[in-house]
Amino acid sequence: MHCFNQSPKLPSRKPFWIACVCLLGCQQLMAQNAVPLNDLSFFDNPSSNWKVAANAQADITQDEVLTTKDGNGILVNLPGKKGAKDLFTKAVYGDADLELDYMMAKGSNSGIYLQGRYEIQLLDSWGTLNPKSGDNGGIYERWDDSKPEGQQGYDGHAPRQNASRAPGLWQHMKISFQAPRFDANGQKISNAKVLYVWLNGVLIQDNVELAGPTRGAFDNKEAATGPLRLQGDHGPVAFRNIRITNYDKPHPTLSNLKYWVYKGGEIASDSYKKLKPESEGTSPVLSSNQSKLNNDFLIRYTGNIQIKEAGEYAFKLNVPGGKGIFRIDGSDAVALTENRGEGKIQLQPGDHPFELFYSKIVDWAKPALGLTVAGPGVREYLLSDANVSNNDPVDPILINATSNTILRSFSDLPGGIRVTHGVNVGSPELLHYTYDLDKGMIVEIWRGGFLDATPMWHDRGDGSSRPAGSVQYLGKPVPAIEKLSDANAAWALDTVGTGYRPKGYVLNADDVPAFKYNIYGTSVTDASSIMDKGQGIHREITLANAVDGLFYHLASGNIEALGNGLYAIDDKSYYIRVDDAAGAKAVVRDAGGKQELIIPIQKKLTYSIIF
């Protein structure tokens, strides 16, 4: 790993069969079961502190205040002073994935207990620089009262970095859990594992083994299954979009494996049929090791795949340095692919004949063959041997901001947008942003690690870098300042005709930049500073002289006015707070199928981006 300054912890290098599970935020290969939140019937004997609501809102300044709006779709815990209880599902789960959104009240504490025994902590850890196991996303400690004072807690696992959002904002969590295993006599033969926890787009727990239940477990008798449990006796919390994927079915198996190894030969043209095999035989497992050649070879496998339950099955085929294809019943489960491919196919129970090819033609790549399957009730499973590759030999090139740091690069935003004149500004408070010099606006803000510069500096590079933490995008880039005839006039998408001229930036004594540009005949100074504990960015926009009709673009998307100059943006993804606008009032307006938050600007505007 190439590191600049102190590098943040990133996911460890994994072989293909693990990496493919966690790729791109651990995308699921099968349908998840959404928990219905029209009422509480999914749960077992819910206590009165639990309710369903149509909306939830936390107060960013007052502890444990969470208000609701009547309706359904959101699960809310309002514990009150006494009598509050935890919430258990009626169903029990073994191996399972859980995905949900949750909202913490300020100062609130809650938790998710997998099988009712292993707690993933939920806490208002907003602004915590060095999270511990008791912070948001941590795996809570185990406990032993017989140990000396101060040593009772042990075996907790802190999140890799703090990706927590502010109170009242929706946070997104993905958890993958592997239940403990037991033999026929009921003796535990392997511990439970948290395969991963992703919080707000960042991997914070990775393949953590759990030697036993954490503190607060509803019992200490580990079992193959148990209910999902949501902590209800601590602080207010809301949940929505709860999805549980239960992996309770036996995985497909392979049998009657036969192989042929050829020197050269093409898959598509069937030219291998004219060649005499270098070797052939039977094998207990799919493997590239059957070939004694390192390159310019083709392996053909045939056999049967046994399917236990009807449904759609997803396969991933890993054939580094070459091409491959995987057919079942004569149909392509994975069509002809280079290096790595995937596909889906509907299968009925029973034995199905298959055929698999691996043609290795790139001499510098190491031979390796990987095949995984996922399906109804089946977590992604490796059908081949462990001699597989993740097809990614590149160590990440990481830049961490141990002091105020500036790096120019391209930045890629959702929707295929590339910011070509971006300035990335990093801070030791672990809050960073990208400024678009072409528009005079901040386009993304993130918490945690600073930059992954691998795309920019590896090999020839493409000039781009990407955030190494939990990122919040701030909408499609538009000019920050526009002259409007009135508050309903359209906002231009570029600076043509505005006299816009970027003038770079100046650094203060702490190396914090203030950006400068000219527009509409005035000079603008755009300065940002990190709020206390890295809770957001305080923005100060100063004009050298007032110009009639100027407005400032604060945000776009779904906008909810919360009062006292505070606005929740994009379904409570982040806040905009107007701090001082010299008496001007912000306007929420409809524009092109979305909402915009704009405000008149004369000489000075200060506002904050909080997330």
TrEMBL record:
Q: Which stretch is the leader sequence?
A: 1-31
One MF term in the entry's GO annotations: hydrolase activity
Chain ranges passing through the membrane: none
Q: What is this protein called?
A: DUF1080 domain-containing protein
Q: Which UniProt keywords apply?
A: Signal
Task: Decide whether keyword Signal is in the record.
Answer: yes
**Pfam families the record matches:** 3keto-disac_hyd
Q: Which domain of life is it from?
A: Bacteria
Region named Disordered: 137-163
Q: Which organism is it from?
A: Mucilaginibacter rubeus
All residue ranges annotated as the PA14 domain in the record? 252-387
